[in-house]
């Protein structure tokens, strides 16, 4: 399976993306603003090809295990990012909740010049088992690309 994040719009401090698995749209993603120079916990992931892994040792695992129960086997982490650590696909609605991580959503809004995603938990519940399966496989690649002009 092939996972792709395609960025489609940028707000003042936010970036809106589409998540695809095998070419099929899954949900929206929200990240921080794309920046030439990284600002810790305020910068979108660089374009490129990376790996998805299952992280079962980070602090968010306890929170998500309590939230999701047996379904949660670990956070879906985008690994091998230059100058980024512990980048998870997770639940949240605004760029203030990303800390450099993509947030899931079934809808989006543009409010005061920034994007927000909606129905984040529902989107995460739907996409998590798919991403978990991919992260546990040998075909655990994810690509990130921009599809708009800055």
UniProtKB/TrEMBL annotation:
Residue ranges of domain DUF5675 in the record: 5-130
Pfam families in alphabetical order: DUF5675
InterPro entries per UniProt: DUF5675 (IPR043732)
Name assigned to this protein: DUF5675 domain-containing protein
Organism, scientific name: Faecalibacter macacae
């Amino acid at each position: 399976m092939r996972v792709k994040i395609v960025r489609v719009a940028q707000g003042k401090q936010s970036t809106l993306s589409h998540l695809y698995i095998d070419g099929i749209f899954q949900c929206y993603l929200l990240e921080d603003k794309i920046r030439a120079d990284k600002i810790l916990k305020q910068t979108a992931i660089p374009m490129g090809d990376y790996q998805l892994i299952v992280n079962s040792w980070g602090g968010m695992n306890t929170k998500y295990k309590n939230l999701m129960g047996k379904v949660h086997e670990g956070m879906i982490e985008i690994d091998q990012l230059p100058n980024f650590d512990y980048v998870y696909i997770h639940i949240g609605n605004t760029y203030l909740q990303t800390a450099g991580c993509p947030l899931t959503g079934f809808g989006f809004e543009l409010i005061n010049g920034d994007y927000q995603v909606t129905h984040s938990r529902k989107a995460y519940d739907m996409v998590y088992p798919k991403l978990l399966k991919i992260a546990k496989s040998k075909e655990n690649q994810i690509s990130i690309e921009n599809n708009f002009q800055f």
